[in-house]
Amino acid sequence: MRALRQMRARDWSFTDFEKAVVEALRVLETYVEQSRAGVEPVVRLTPVAEIFGEKVLQDWIANGSMDASSFAAFLENYLHHSTRMFHPGYMAHQVAVPDFPTALGDLVHGTIHNPMAIYEMGPSAAAVEFAVLWWMLKKIGWEQSGSGVLTHGGSLANLTALLAARAAVAPDVWENGVDGQLVILAPPSSHYSVRRAASILGLGAKAVLPVEVDRNEVIVPSGVATAIEKCGEEGKKIVALVANACATGTGLHDPLDELGRLCREKDVWLHVDGAHGASALVSEKEKHLLRGVERANSLTWDAHKMLRTSGLCTGVLFRDPHSLDKAFQQDASYIFYEHETPGVDLIHRTVECTKAGLGLKVFLNLAWRGETGIARYVEQEYELARRIYRIIQSRDRFSCPYEPESNIVCFRFEGDDALQVKIREQLLAEGQFHISSTEVGGRRYLRLTIINPQTTEETIEQMLDAIERVA
Question: What's the CATH number for 107-365?
Answer without folding.
Answer: 3.40.640.10
